[in-house]
Specification:
With 474 residues, the chain is α/β, with parallel strands linked by helices. It has ten helices and 21 strands. The structure holds 2-acetamido-2-deoxy-beta-D-glucopyranose (NAG) (5 copies). GO terms for molecular function: lipoprotein lipase activity; metal ion binding; phospholipase A1 activity. It comes from Gallus gallus (Chicken).
Length: 474
């Protein structure tokens, strides 16, 4: 039903008759009616949309994972509520719904892995929502379909309320891409949901639209958002750039993630928009990083601290370092631990992540004062070791080096300060440096971004190039 012809037909109507005729409407039992009146279509940035497909055709399913089921999930349905009563669903536990995005699935992959990991840290009900059949046509069809998916999730929650007097305050919706707006639609229909986490909410047909169309802070008591592929002009991307929650996190600036090398970002914007309207492939490494970061944040809670800042440029230049007195929120699963999370909506936070899993990093400002060198070419580095045998090396400065200067740099260290075993200083020569040259670190000061704490280390004497010098607290 939702093929290209219908979309083109709708587009023609929208194009010629915009504002002059009433829209079309479909009604489905249990869920109510859906019209394509503004703001659902026919508004700037959203001219192309039509109507959602019937729920039966999308084959939406809810798979329950609990500590009892493990990997053998139970399919439960609000239409036949005995499936819920006969399942391992427990009304004494909290419930998370995980909702995938365009051309994805809830039957395997990250959605299932997220449920299994959440169960390791909390005894909960985790429900993997699958709407693959509604998500596999063109992008425009899927954009329409999420209105029905959101209504189905809301219907499911209302069924839990009826069956168990289950409170929406026990519910957390986690959605990626179109799944983030699906969660928003569910939250618009059931008030008082505890939390929605939007993982790179889809941008095309949502950016700049009114709140009822997209995820927004009124959809739950607390809304946190990770932007990983934000379409920030002139860059192209699948995600939204604008804030859309209480806490909006922009890792690595929010648009382009390190370790990804997709070419889509280099497309001309007009080509990109044409691609989006027609596409049946949608996704990129950058876009997926949002759910990968969320996943890793469950395992490395302190490794994703977000710094309050207006822009990524300010963040990079150090204006927003270290965290203010009231502290910083953690991006991802533990964002809800931030005491000031509800102080206002649209709070922006910036951080850098590592390029590779587990992506966690701890931002530090380091200062190095050298000893034993008047003027010499080379580079100076710090090596961090943790108690598990991991080692990371960072260059702090290069070029002409001298002991009458302090070298300083912001580092995003991939070693947890709580697990750091030792820190070493290492220098390297250039081809022009004398073979027998020596230098050392007199003092190394480190400011930890998360709490502003200082650590001071001393080297002792000098070392030759390529030989690490142990730094000890002083
Ligand atoms: C739709 O769902 C039913 C029950 O979950 C399943 O048996 C059927 O194969 C599904 N159809 C498609 C096209 O996936
Ligand atoms: C869960 O089951 C699926 C399919 O049965 C399998 O592919 C996956 O590896 C399993 N995951 C875990 C964590 O056991
Ligand atoms: C409802 O689900 C139960 C299993 O819990 C099944 O035995 C029953 O046939 C289902 N009823 C309908 C009407 O599908
Ligand atoms: C961004 O969001 C703010 C606050 O919700 C809103 O005032 C502004 O118009 C939005 N800008 C765009 C381009 O959507
Ligand atoms: C030291 O510098 C040389 C030349 O610049 C380079 O080839 C070498 O890899 C460097 N060694 C280390 C440990 O960085």
């Amino acid at each position: 039903m939702c093929d290209k012809r219908m979309v083109v037909g709708t587009w023609i109507i929208a194009f010629y008759l915009l504002g002059t005729v009433a829209g079309e409407e479909v009604c489905y039992p249990r869920l109510g009616c859906f019209s394509n009146d503004p703001p659902w279509s026919g508004i700037p940035g959203r001219l192309l949309t039509g109507l959602p497909e019937p729920p039966e055709e999308m084959n939406i399913s809810f798979s329950l994972y609990t500590r009892e089921t493990g990997n053998n999930s139970q399919v439960i349905s609000a239409i036949n509520s005995s499936t819920i009563q006969n399942s391992h669903f427990s009304s004494r536990r909290r419930t998370s719904f995980i909702i995938h995005g365009f051309s994805s699935t809830g039957k395997k992959g990250w959605v299932v892995e997220m449920c299994l990991l959440l169960l390791e840290v909390e005894n909960m009900n985790c429900i993997a929502v699958d709407w693959k059949e509604g998500a596999k046509g063109t992008y425009v069809c899927a954009v329409n379909n999420i209105r029905v998916i959101g209504a189905e999730v809301a219907y499911f929650i209302k069924t839990l309320q009826k069956l168990f007097r289950y409170s929406p305050r026990e519910i957390h919706l986690i959605g990626h891409s179109l799944g983030a707006h699906t969660a928003g639609e569910a939250g618009r229909r059931v008030r008082g949901i505890r939390r929605i986490s939007g993982l790179d909410p889809a941008g095309p047909y949502f950016e700049g639209t009114p709140p009822e169309v997209r995820l927004d802070p009124t959809d739950a008591n607390f809304v946190d958002v990770i932007h990983s592929n934000a379409a920030h002009f002139p860059a192209t991307g699948f995600g939204m750039y604008n804030t859309t929650g209480h806490l909006d996190f922009y890792p690595n600036g929010g648009t382009q993630m390190p370790g990804c090398n997709d070419l889509l970002l280099e497309m001309k914007r007009s080509d990109f928009e044409a691609l989006i309207a027609d596409t049946t492939i949608f996704g990129s490494c950058h876009h997926s990083r949002s759910h990968e970061y969320y996943f890793k944040s469950i395992l490395y809670p302190t490794g994703f601290v977000g710094y309050p800042c207006e822009t990524d440029e300010d963040f990079k230049s150090g204006v927003c370092f270290p965290c203010p007195k009231q502290g910083c929120p953690m991006m991802g699963h533990y964002a809800d631990r931030f005491p000031y999370k509800l102080k206002r909506v649209n709070q922006k936070y910036f951080l850098n992540t590592a390029a590779d899993p587990p992506f966690a990093s701890w931002r530090q400002k380091v200062f190095i004062k050298l000893s034993g060198v008047k003027k010499m070419r080379g580079d100076i580095n710090l090596i961090f070791h943790d108690t598990e045998g991991n080692t990371k090396e960072y260059e702090v400065a290069s070029g002409v080096l001298s002991d009458d200067k302090v070298y300083t740099k912001y580092l995003d260290v991939e070693i947890d300060p709580q697990k750091t075993k030792k820190v070493e200083f290492l220098w390297n020569k250039t081809i022009f440096t004398l073979l027998w040259a020596r230098m050392g670190a007199e003092t190394v000061n480190i400011i930890h971004g998360e709490d502003g704490r200082w650590s001071t280390f001393c080297g002792h004497g000098t070392v030759t190039y390529g030989v690490p010098q142990l730094l000890t607290p002083c």
